[in-house]
Amino acid sequence: MAVMSQAFCWPTCLHGELGGLDLTGERRKLRGQASGAFVSLKCPLRRSSISIVGSERGRSAGRKQVRTSVRSEAVAAGDKLDSGTGLLEHEDLNSDEEQVVPPKNGLLPIENGAKFTPGSSGIEVDSVSEADLKENGFRSTRRTKLVCTIGPATCSFEQLEALANGGMNVARLNMCHGTREWHRAVIRNVRMLNAEKGYSVAIMMDTEGSEIHMGDLGENSAKAEDGEEWTFTVRKFEAADLPERTVQVNYEGFAEDVQAGDELVVDGGMVRFDVVKKLGPDVICRCIDPGLLLPRANLTFWRDGRLVRERNAMLPTISSKDWLDIDFGISEGVDFIAVSFVKTADVIKHLKSYITARCPQEPIGVFAKIESSDSLRNLEDIIQVSDGAMVARGDLGAQIPLEQVPSVQQEIVQLCRQLNKPVIVASQLLESMIEYPTPTRAEVADISEAVRQRADALMLSGESAMGAYPDKALSVLRQVSLRIEKWCREEKNHENTRLQELSAALPDRISEQICNAAAQMANKLEVDAIFVYTRRGYMAQLLSRCRPDCPIFAFTDSKNVRRRLNLSWGLIPFRVDFSDDMENNLRRTFALLKARGMMKSGDLVVAVSDITSSNLNENLQSIQVRKIP
Ligand SMILES: Nc1ncnc2c1ncn2[C@@H]1O[C@H](COP(=O)(O)OP(=O)(O)OP(=O)(O)O)[C@@H](O)[C@H]1O
Ligand SMILES: CC(=O)C(=O)O
Ligand SMILES: [K+]
Ligand SMILES: [Mg+2]
């Protein structure tokens, strides 16, 4: 379905609802909401268009004419739209097309729009990806994934829905902030959104770590002006009782470790202070670089141009509070845990075995945040044992000279791709949009660079957590990603990365070679998509690593794997049930995708699979090129 034009409030609902092909239910709702609105359906020819035309009167902006027109491959003349199942009923049955019959144990239905009806025929895919595929065609779907930090600006169901609708693939929860109750409520909202509205937003929990940071401020933020005196204290205050120009510090040893003459750096240089004197638990500082102080901002102190690493350097990477948060994350079923200030590979191994012991069935992806000089020293070892990494440029830029951050970013992104681990580029991508509705040109250039490096994902921090324009910021990420990806494909300026061999064992080597070959064939033959049938997601990940020109449709039978694949470059994860019979799987997915208007006859795909046959007890790894019948 291609939405030709779209405007204002309710056609946006229409658009969502059309994704689910569930019109009747929504129509009722629409009529209730906007009197005078009408919806008419026309399906003049088989495989031609449904047009939805609506007009809306009496809005505050005055009289408005709104037209939305939608094309669907899946609809035939005389079709009825059934709100109960969300499926189309064909009245015209002189069709040579394969009927989509609900298979026993089969594919779950459209988890989209307003309704979700388990048990009948369907296939689960992110409603935003689905709309994207239909509107923009295969080649133009977005490959770079988007992570949004959730905070006070985005924690309600409606705000989360707006982000999901805007393309958020992963919601990040920073355990530096908020109570567990607050985080629990957000997680439940995201789960509800997924279940009710057909998204598959994954959840990433980001640990606090033991680094030094400020406490909550009396207000959302505070401005420190040049020459002002501020007190940094280890005394405890309720936020409301905090004296003026006072900042609490979480690390008890702070007032002892710091010395007069040190430089105190907030959030990697957003604001700077000179330490004037110490008064017991209070440290009096003078602002030398003015700027905005945000609650819980990171603090480092420098002496003679060097980062001071006193007793705080001995604090554990995962604090006792972090372990409690991790237990909480496990019990809430988060998809990823990002570990702050990782220093060595051991801490990641430890956490992974802890998680495996706690929930062997549902592995949680453990991401290493690269944000300290220690993590750079052990970079390859750390990434090797992690499930992915984050270039956490905020703190990284406070620990290494700023001018080194861009090359370090590129190094981490490339290493992650070589080692087949998804990588997120994070922090300050659109910092100015915390306050302003448009980005700076430099910010757009920064996003472009990360997209050109083909990072798996980009992340919003304060922009989405507490900024004034979270949806706009997300939309900038989306638009810039799409444009730069297209440009890269047209320029073919990415073709020359040689991928090292990853595996030693034969079955894994076979998977790897199949994926490399499939990606190469897909590029040479200019196919519309690569299909991969995968249980654990490994093959899908290997294909993503090749960064092929076409999108990768990853079919998995696990909801958890589907959510986790959401973070990997170029993958569009679907949940379906498999049989061991590859031919059967292919036919069924072709038919279902056609019925949903996501593919059409004549589309060319490369299909790979590593499904183990339970009957034959052997791996049936295969690669095929197929034209959709
Ligand atoms: N759950 C939350 N509750 C309140 N404010 C939040 C929350 N999450 C983020 N924020 C606000 O958004 C700002 C940026 O958030 P973010 O979590 O990305 O910080 P960061 O410094 O990039 O991450 P880290 O603390 O891991 O280094 C924070 O300084 C804080 O003001
Ligand atoms: C994201 C994060 O933790 C940082 O940039 O420091
Ligand atoms: K954190
Ligand atoms: Mg950080």
Automatic annotation (TrEMBL):
Top enzyme category: transferase
Gene3D superfamilies: Phosphoenolpyruvate-binding domains (3.20.20.60), PK beta-barrel domain-like (2.40.33.10), Pyruvate kinase, C-terminal domain (3.40.1380.20)
Involved pathway(s): Carbohydrate degradation; glycolysis; pyruvate from D-glyceraldehyde 3-phosphate: step 5/5
UniProt cross-references to InterPro entries, sorted A to Z: Pyr_Knase, Pyrv/PenolPyrv_kinase-like_dom, Pyrv_kinase-like_dom_sf, Pyrv_Knase-like_insert_dom_sf, Pyrv_Knase_brl, Pyrv_Knase_C, Pyrv_Knase_C_sf, Pyrv_Knase_insert_dom_sf
Keyword Magnesium found: yes
Single GO BP term: glycolytic process
Cofactor(s) required, per the database record: K(+); Mg(2+)
SUPFAM superfamilies given in the database record: Phosphoenolpyruvate/pyruvate domain, PK beta-barrel domain-like, PK C-terminal domain-like
Domain Pyruvate kinase C-terminal per the UniProt entry, residue ranges: 512-613
Reaction(s) the record says it catalyses: pyruvate + ATP = phosphoenolpyruvate + ADP + H(+)
Domain Pyruvate kinase barrel: 142-473
GO CC list: chloroplast stroma; cytoplasm
EC code(s) of this entry: 2.7.1.40
Top-rank taxon, per record: Eukaryota
GO MF annotation: an example: pyruvate kinase activity
Keywords: ATP-binding, Chloroplast, Glycolysis, Kinase, Magnesium, Metal-binding, Nucleotide-binding, Plastid, Potassium, Pyruvate, Transferase, Transit peptide
Stretches assigned to coiled coil: none
Localization in the cell: Plastid, Chloroplast
Family, per entry: Belongs to the pyruvate kinase family.
Name used for this protein in its record: Pyruvate kinase
Phylogenetic placement of the source organism: Eukaryota, Viridiplantae, Streptophyta, Embryophyta, Marchantiophyta
